[in-house]
Amino acid sequence: MNSLFDPKSVAVIGASDNPSKLGFHVMKSLVKGGYEGTLIPVNPGAERIFGIKAVASVSVSQAQIDLAIVVVPASRVAGVFKECAAVQVKGIVLITAGFKEIDDPAGAALHEEIAGIVNKAKIPVIGPNTFGMINLHANLNASFTPEFSLTKPGNIALVSQSGGISHLLGFLAMGDGVGFSKIVGLGNRLNVDFAQMVDYLMDDPDTRTIAFYVEGIDAPGQLLAAAKRHAGKKPIVAFKSGSGSVGDAAARSHTGAMAGRHEIYRGAFKQAGILTVPGTQDLLDAAKALAACPVPTGPGVAVLSGQAGPSMAACDVCEQRGLEIVRFRTDTQARINELLPPLAHRTNPVDMGPAWYDSEAIKGIVQAVMDDKKVHGILFLMMFASANVEALAGISGLLKEWNQKKPVVSCILSPPGIWADQIRDLENAKALVNYATPERAACAMANLWKYKSLRRNHVRNF
Amino acid sequence: MNSLFDPKSVAVIGASDNPSKLGFHVMKSLVKGGYEGTLIPVNPGAERIFGIKAVASVSVSQAQIDLAIVVVPASRVAGVFKECAAVQVKGIVLITAGFKEIDDPAGAALHEEIAGIVNKAKIPVIGPNTFGMINLHANLNASFTPEFSLTKPGNIALVSQSGGISHLLGFLAMGDGVGFSKIVGLGNRLNVDFAQMVDYLMDDPDTRTIAFYVEGIDAPGQLLAAAKRHAGKKPIVAFKSGSGSVGDAAARSHTGAMAGRHEIYRGAFKQAGILTVPGTQDLLDAAKALAACPVPTGPGVAVLSGQAGPSMAACDVCEQRGLEIVRFRTDTQARINELLPPLAHRTNPVDMGPAWYDSEAIKGIVQAVMDDKKVHGILFLMMFASANVEALAGISGLLKEWNQKKPVVSCILSPPGIWADQIRDLENAKALVNYATPERAACAMANLWKYKSLRRNHVRNF
Angle at the Cα of A231 (from A229 to A234), degrees rounded to 5? Predict the structure, then answer.
């Protein structure tokens, strides 16, 4: 698997200079993505592709091939796989579709045939019917979408059964400043399924959190066993679609797998310590928090807000999702009362409105709740309003220095071009994680706590 | 109220050149916002403010004052109001805080005193304790946040009891391409409350949809009566915070109003034909759809997707929220079957994956469901993937020409800089409304249908 995700050489079987072919887009992904290893276009009908010398087949290539990306028609895949096995290719990404997922039983037969070849040769295969995979830390874009290389390198591994969802989350991540270690489209899982990805990613030093998009799993027992085997090591968060009957039926058709009852999956995931979330944005939001925050040691939250309204929206979500808006310790409350006039709501949730111009007061309030043992996590909400433009700079140092001894989840929002660099700077320093609405921030904090609670059932001293 | 929102002259009472004063930010909002009427800074201690000749008080101003924006300390407001009444100011925005919302009973007394002055003089007042208001169609930024002028003019009127939520929604709207007619911070509602805003906005030609953020209402009966009075004229959508006990208590403190049981509000809003949503992003999303789409005549939805995964996520939400993923008419299905290979999921939700490179096929599929009487609305989902870069251009003409005879709600997503102009162009042409996730798109469609169902109970032939 290491050679698959970090290959020294890559062959593109079905490489093309014709933009109407996927083999063109794969070549573009590798070249534009800045892949630095040996790149070998394979196409019997071309001398050079993307200006790089092409070979007619992997059999005639002089170089050792670590990874083969295959984009030839389904009918030719068995032959290609035999050649790959013969020259001891170490891993394959099979983009081609037309196997188990089609109505025709010939597709399933072909699937079995090619599985037999690579399983015998012990070659791990991502796909078939996948857009590919990306290793952001190796500048390896082994997909048909060059734009995935715009994604920020980070420590979340995204493993998805849907290319569409991978693209969706990739583009959302670009806007939300979320970074990935790897983005993997499992497709129809010839021999690399969620279970194999868990085993690999739990030991992957670039990955801190694993995010799954699941439609249906052939061998759920394998995944659950793998998740339990590594319990407590790294968080896994999963969104499974198909809660409704239509989506479920579509999933069955799309993945060629039994999608099956949604509740059974949820129960099984819970048993295995996998955090489940109900949607795509939630998946990204939860993964972002789990990748950048410590887990809280309890459900007690302090809500510190520059304006009252957003704190109410956040409190509603906190209460719905099992967090407690704690009553501060007496000394904490006394410190806050010294810093804020009675005009403000000074108990939790704290309305810091009157302290806008006074970054020392804001700092003092943040410090007070940091010191309060009843507070297990801090929700910090601040809408830009011109007059409070300095409010963020005033607490940046404190937040960085504190380094999330307890999780700090924020909704700091501003017009384009204002505060954006400061927020990114705080996120990069792991001083906080930021979300675009107070509800999403509260939800992320709730998921941190939910994960902690889940894991407690599995791992002693977690 | 017309003079309040579209004044020929504006006086800023408490105007300042000192950036640590709100009077500075209000002046900046008006000047930078491009207000074209007569602007009169009022401050006894300055000759000129922002380079504009200042007056010592409104009493000595030679010009007729339509709107007075007041930012002087609470103790001075009664005196200022008397002067405003004497010179027949037509409307006031009272930014100053420190009235009913503070613990001190003196605040409530002051509130009553100033209310008496303006009520006798029949001057409508936005505030106290507000950031102000903005009329995007008159370049009037009567708030302490100049950046509100960056918001796009549009046809949604946002009326909010929280400045923080107004800022939040304003900044989200900038990212989501949502435009406002007016943004109004009601604050503590001296004599302009939700009910008065309903009466005004229902006749406001710039407003098509009204969005409310509600914490607690003193006179809910008035609002409900006003909403019923104008039933069916323009949609009202509301998010009320305080579903939890903490948020509710904070709301009581923040607004000085009885916040009260959340369920009672929900029931009353439903009775009055007001659509309720559970959060800030939902409020913006629902308002965006209601402002740009026709309401569907039934719950039947066609889901057309460039990739299978996103359609499943969308279908789950549709089913949860009362929409039906209809079975197409036989002739519709036959047309789609001609355009797509069996490889794809051709029944609803339709996986248009194989038609990526074939914009004529995509066009044919869209046309087929447009013609299907069982389809009341179209969900169109398309993730950019390099190879499908032409897919959007191919259907733009058809979508524009069709002009949403049935609502078209989309999730078309791409990396920064790709498709953004085309999506904006389609939105500006009212050919569709676009959202960043399939779930948000599905939710917006569900809210269109929910609104239609709500209104049917009130208005015959709606």
Answer: 120
Compute φ and ψ for B149, nearest 5 degrees.
-70, -15
Instruction: Give the model confidence (pLDDT) of B24-53 as tens digits.
Output: 999 999 999 999 999 999 999 999 999 999
**Chain B CB contacts of A322 below 8 Å:** none
Q: Cβ–Cβ of B253/A345 closer than 8 Å?
A: yes
How far from the centroid of its chain's Cα atoms is residue B403's Cα?
A: 22
Would you say A58 and A67 are in contact if contact means Cβ atoms under 8 Å apart?
Answer: no
- Cα dist. B333→A366, B316, B447 in Å? 60, 22, 27
Which value, to the nearest 10 degrees, does the dihedral of the CA atoms of residues A258, A260, A265, A268 take? -80
What ipTM was reported for this prediction? Answer: 0.95
- Name residue A377's beta-bridge partners: A301
- pLDDT per residue as tens digits for the range A201-236: 999 999 999 999 999 887 788 999 999 999 889 999
Distance of CA A315 to the CA centre of its chain: 26
C-alpha pair distances (Å), A317 with each of A297, B84, B241, B261: 19, 44, 10, 16
Q: Torsion angle of alpha carbons B133, A349, B238, A440, nearest 10°?
A: 100
Cα atoms in the 13 Å half-sphere on the side-chain side of B321: 21
Distance CA B179, CA A190 (A): 48
Give, in order, the Cα–Cα distances in Å from B42 to each of A277, B31, B301: 55, 15, 57
Partners of residue B312 in chain A, C-beta under 8 Å: 162, 215, 241-242, 247, 250-251, 254
Chain A residue with Cα closest to B322: A244
The length of chain B, given as a count of residues: 462
pTM value is: 0.95
The shortest CB-CB distance from B387 to any of A22, A415, A416 is to: A22
3-state secondary structure B197-214: HHHHHHCCCCCCEEEEEE
Task: Fill in the DSSP letter of residue A417.
Answer: T
pLDDT tens per residue across span B172-192: 999 998 999 999 999 999 999
- Cα end-to-end distance, chain B, whole Å: 29
CA of A368 vs chain B CAs: smallest distance (Å): 20
- Asked whether the beta carbons of residue A309 and residue B175 sit closer than 8 angstroms, the reply is no
Number of Cβ pairs < 8 A linking chain A and chain B = 276
- Three-state SS at A392: helix
Asked whether the beta carbons of residue A307 and residue B167 sit closer than 8 angstroms, the reply is: yes
